[in-house]
């Protein structure tokens, strides 16, 4: 099914019919989870595949030579990087000649400037985006981060609040507002902001940790402990949460427990410091630059997909792989493109390369989903198992694996177990519905009825382990 924009009369490059309904539901959940983790590809997929890239309008005017301001970068870059920047600039102008200087294209240029150390110039381009579209989220978020990095909290708050007003259901915006408020000691505002958020996002570690820290500073220690214990249950390696727990338990006179938490904090802090030293020791500026440039190429490729030109997008992704063969975002988008076009052999080749990046969570989730959609359930199971190893306290890998087993029609008791784990970590209506389906598949009618009832009631915080009381 082809979709066309009446405004631009451009063929929409993505065909949603090529993915099953189960896979689309799963991917929405998976990508949403990856976005919380901050992955570049999560942003690309969420924007280009699910929310729909804004189709670029036709342009009736010419484009000046240095409209995106990237020329300044070529003067200070290495020859290889300068050539890559000129190529990005050329691609963006190619799109702008046809569709105009849109916020989407300007945002890519801003990220190019930011990636290569020109934050002030990037901020200027984001301001230009907002002149054309005051509600353009990437620009609002980019400016918020820019001013936050400069310690200009009020300016940062202005942009984060605007983003939150436009997208109130996204916890990440509330988190960034809360961080800026916390930095200024505005504890009551943090609590007022995050209390309703935590009721809807009881599995969001950042929300739990920031709200918990605010309660520590307010000396509301019982509330702080409840939230921070939930945070470390979901993310056992979250260093700062243990420090907050140590403070709160010490204040309540629980000396032994406080000592345990503070010891855990010191152990994790030492681990973090050693990891940082190792990163500095093995730092390779050339490799890092090529990786960043490959990610920028991937953003440009996404723009060409949005403009209805998958052929050019594929060529750009191939160039990204030449720069950085292991670039996760480029491999992910290329796999998506081949899958959407029905190019099974090429898709599988890319997926199997991506699957070898065993410590890259977004890649494992994507591999699992696409293998499942191609009925390669064994390989899909392996990918989701690796995702669980990487994120054992996050719900989406468990839900993904449960969905795979149900679709496969095999290991149904394991499907029920995985669905139950997903519910335990995130008692959302969606996960309860998945549990109901798993119970039905196992012949557990009573469990299915209970799960569907709880799906209708879902919405508040469920303490870890509560679901076990309903489903023995």
Keywords:
disordered N terminus; mainly alpha; 25 helices; globular; 3 domains; Serine Threonine Protein Phosphatase 5, Tetratricopeptide repeat; disordered C terminus; 472 residues
Report what the structure shows.
The longest helix is centred in the middle third of the chain and has 27 residues, at 255-281. 73% of the residues lie in helices and 0% in strands. It has 25 helices and no strands. The chain has helices at 21-36, 40-50, 71-74, 79-99, 103-115, 119-132, 137-149, 153-166, 171-183, 187-200, 205-217, 221-234, 239-251, 255-281, 285-306, 310-323, 328-340, 344-355, 361-373, 377-390, 395-408, 412-425, 429-441, 445-457, 467-470. It is mostly helical and 472 residues long. It folds into three domains: 1-55 and 255-410, Serine Threonine Protein Phosphatase 5, Tetratricopeptide repeat (Alpha Horseshoe); 56-254, Alpha Horseshoe (Serine Threonine Protein Phosphatase 5, Tetratricopeptide repeat), CATH 1.25.40.10; 412-472, no CATH class. Mean pLDDT is 84; it is low at 1-56 and 460-472. 47% of the residues are buried.
């Amino acid at each position: 099914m082809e979709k066309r924009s009446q405004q631009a009369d451009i063929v929409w490059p993505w065909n949603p019919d090529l993915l099953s309904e189960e896979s689309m539901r799963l991917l929405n959940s998976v990508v949403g989870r990856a976005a919380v983790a901050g992955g570049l590809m999560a942003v690309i997929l969420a924007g280009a595949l699910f929310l729909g890239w804004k189709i670029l309008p036709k342009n009736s005017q010419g484009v000046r030579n240095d409209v995106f301001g990237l020329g300044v970068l070529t003067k200070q870059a290495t020859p290889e990087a300068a050539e890559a920047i000129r190529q990005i600039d050329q691609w963006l102008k190619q799109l702008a000649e046809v569709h105009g200087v849109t916020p989407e294209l300007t945002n890519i240029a801003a990220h190019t400037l930011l990636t290569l150390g020109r934050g002030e110039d990037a901020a200027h381009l984001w301001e230009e985006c907002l002149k054309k579209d005051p509600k353009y989220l990437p620009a609002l978020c980019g400016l918020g981060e820019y001013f936050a990095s400069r310690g200009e909290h009020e300016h940062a708050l202005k942009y984060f609040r605007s983003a939150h007003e436009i997208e109130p259901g996204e916890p990440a915006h509330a988190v960034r507002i809360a961080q800026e408020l916390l930095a200024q000691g505005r504890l009551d505002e943090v609590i007022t902001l995050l209390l309703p958020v935590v009721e809807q996002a009881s599995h969001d570690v950042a929300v739990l940790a920031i709200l918990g820290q605010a309660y520590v500073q307010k000396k509301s220690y019982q509330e702080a402990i409840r939230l921070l214990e939930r945070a470390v249950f979901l993310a056992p390696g979250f260093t700062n949460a243990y420090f907050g727990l140590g403070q709160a338990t010490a204040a309540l006179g629980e000396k032994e427990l406080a000592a345990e938490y503070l010891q855990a904090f010191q152990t994790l802090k030492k681990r973090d410091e050693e990891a940082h030293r190792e990163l500095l020791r093995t730092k390779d500026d050339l490799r890092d630059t090529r990786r960043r440039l490959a990610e920028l190429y991937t953003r440009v490729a996404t723009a060409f997909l949005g403009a209805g030109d998958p052929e050019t997008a594929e060529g750009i992704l191939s160039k990204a792989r030449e720069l950085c063969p292991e670039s996760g975002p480029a491999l992910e988008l290329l796999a998506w493109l081949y899958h959407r076009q029905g190019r099974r052999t090429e898709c599988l080749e890319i997926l199997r390369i991506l699957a070898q990046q065993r410590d890259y969570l977004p890649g494992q989730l994507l591999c699992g989903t696409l293998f499942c959609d191609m009925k390669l359930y064994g390989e899909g199971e392996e990918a989701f198992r690796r995702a669980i190893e990487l994120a054992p306290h996050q719900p989406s890998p468990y839900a993904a694996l449960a969905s795979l087993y149900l679709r496969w029609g095999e290991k149904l008791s394991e499907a029920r177990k995985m669905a139950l784990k997903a519910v335990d970590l995130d008692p959302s209506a969606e996960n309860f519905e998945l549990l109901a389906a798993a119970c039905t598949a196992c012949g557990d009618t009573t469990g299915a009825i209970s799960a569907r009832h709880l799906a209708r009631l879902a919405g508040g915080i469920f303490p870890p382990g509560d679901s076990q009381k309903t489903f023995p």
